[in-house]
Specification:
About 90% of the residues lie in helices and about 0% in strands. It has about 190 residues and is mostly helical. The relative contact order is 0.02.
């Protein structure tokens, strides 16, 4: 094949050879700018790749920042919700404590009322006992007075009876004066 090419080159005329050389020179001239454009295209492609990589990095950073913000927002929302639940629980506990305190106060008031009623009842019973005691003392005093009066009357009656008896006895011994009537006293 090399021989055939050589043969072809020799068989060609000089004008054709010049043209070939001219075309080859022009090809070299045109290949240099083509190489430059390829290099520029390659450079542009690399720059585009770098720009895309940078854009991806920026997008990834932005996405990470958004995720971080979303996570912080979720955490803030969860903290807010937990705080609201805590506040609701505290309010519920306060309401329960308030109800318990009210119930305790009611129980205390009821116990105080019972104690007061019992004290009043005890006072009434004591007053009734004191009144009964006074009445019994008065009754005993009256009975004693009645017994003393009766004893005095009995003593008087006994004395009178004794007096009458002695008078009657003595009147039998002594003669009665005429015309005087002695009263007859019945024995009591």
């Amino acid at each position: 094949m090399v021989q055939a090419t050589l043969y072809q080159l020799q068989s060609q005329s000089q004008a054709t050879t010049q043209t070939t050389q001219k075309v080859a020179g022009e090809a070299q001239k045109t290949s240099a700018p083509q190489f430059e454009t390829e290099r520029l295209e390659q450079k542009k492609a690399e720059e585009q790749k770098q720009a895309q990589a940078e854009a991806q990095k920026v997008a990834a950073a932005k996405k990470a920042e958004e995720q971080k913000q979303a996570e912080e927002a979720r955490k803030a929302e969860a903290a807010k919700k937990a705080e609201a639940e805590k506040a609701a629980e505290q309010k519920r506990q306060a309401d329960i404590a308030k109800k318990r305190a009210e119930e305790e106060a009611k129980k205390k008031a009821a116990e105080e009322a019972k104690k007061k009623a019992a004290a009043d009842e005890a006072k009434k019973k004591a007053a009734a006992a004191e009144a009964a005691k006074k009445k019994a003392a008065e009754d005993a005093k009256r009975k004693a007075e009645d017994a003393r009066r009766k004893a005095a009357e009995d003593q008087k009656a006994a004395a009178l009876a004794e007096c009458c008896r002695t008078t009657y006895r003595t009147s039998r011994r002594w003669p009665k004066p005429m015309g005087i009537r002695w009263p007859v006293i019945s024995m009591i």
